[in-house]
Amino acid sequence: MSQIEKKNVYNRERSKTQVKSTVLKKTSQALAALMIVSMLLPVLAFAAVNFQTVTYDKYNKTVSGSVYSDTYTVSDKVYFSVYSDNATKNVIPSEFKAFGFNTVNGVTYYNFKIDLSSVTSAVYDSVYVKTSDGFAEAVYNALNSGTQGSLPSSGSGYYGGFTGGLSSDGVIEVYGDSVDAYTLQRAFENSKEVKIKIKGDKLAIPADVLAEALKKGAISVTIINDNGTITLPLAALKLEALAKELGAELKETKINVTIAKVTGTAAEDVTKAVYAAGGNPIATAVDFNVTASGNSKSVNVDFGSTYVSRTLNVNKNLDAKKATGALYNETTKKLSFVPSTFESKDGQTVATLKRNGNSIYTVIEASKSFEDLASHWSKADVELLANKLVVEGAADKQFQPDRNITRAEFAALVVRSLGLNSVTANTYFTDINSSAWYAGVVASASKAGIINGYEDNTFRPDAQITREELAAMIIRSLSYAGVASEVSESNQAQQLAKFKDSSKIVWAKKEIAAAVNAGIINGLTDDTIGSAEKATRSQAATMLKRYLKLADFID
Which domains does the chain have, with CATH numbers? Predict the structure, then answer.
């Protein structure tokens, strides 16, 4: 080739380079006007540098992750560029260097974090990250509804670090232990009740996305795996308060959900507790746990009085009157009642358990009876509640249905029926000894607003409860369970007019009228309410059963 020919080739190549530079400059300026951003999921192609994990934070406009190489051994050799289109390679201005590396067995791993907000205000339909190697790249295309984009044409590839996407039925499918912020945001744009299906036992959810969704009217997020499901009401999470408690920004806060099958010694202890309670296990025990984390701290999520629904699969057909959801207390190693209902779906019985706290849950079946109930009018109601661990016998095979019930005894029944934990410290009443068997349940009932006590700041635990007091405590329990039961003044008068002794009601006319209206309490006779009469154990059990059904706490 002559010198003139070589010079012409050189000039042509130089001209191409200048044109390409000018096009890229103009393209970069044009990209600043683009809208619609998407999350980033990696697709890998083998070359000198390969992507291991990549995540994209839409809200902070950062791309971070790691790559590995068996060619390079220092971070100065690895740079990253970002572009918005795989075909035209429209480059987002700037180039980024890996900030850390570690070599293991001849393979060097590099970490990187790309801050797009520092170089562009634009957002993109699709985002690609390419290494300085020129071949390996990670890509996500927003038009693919949460699926990975096409593999680069050069080399073979595989998926890595994939967190999931939206399925055709609107369920988010997650393959890692966290859900992508943008995918979650898109899901809430389409539904107020989002469902997330996970492959493992744990999931981290960005709190800021939940908070924003709540402001726009979203209701809940349900996490699903092979062990069970849990539905979190967004309003009950109190996200801003959790972030404040952690000393973290909301965008740094995560809601962490665990739905894990109980195994090993713990599972054996649960089974022993089931048999000790007089039942048989009919579902695997599952540990449901919800925490918040941020600022290197973690706290349990307190749902207050909001009942959170969980589901467990039952391994047999059952009689709902003999089955119940149960909480396993790891300290006492005992079971207690959990509000629960049952439904058959596609040949599978599903138990829905409702409670406002973290714990280990299971489902049991029992068939209890009492000798002194053989011909008693309350037999069915008492035995149903006994099977559900709400009521207990007074002695071996004896329920003593016609014995009057004390205020402390009924407080214990109410606490059990609501699935509440006992409160250890009594700061409510002057006549409650902290060592008394009822101290914890009385304190718990008082904290929940179920009991008020007397004007002299006493509770009088051993006093026999009146039907008036019992009706009032039941209506307050309904309120705590989230069931509206109040009646208007005109309806109140109408409900009480049928009882000729209604004028003897001392202070709870509103509560008794509400209980009559709801069908929880009936008259002693057709025209007497007997508000001052002492309530019996059978009457208490029957009223509990009626309110539990009304609250949808039992079938």
Answer: 43-162 (2.60.40), 172-366 (2.60.220), 371-550 (no CATH)
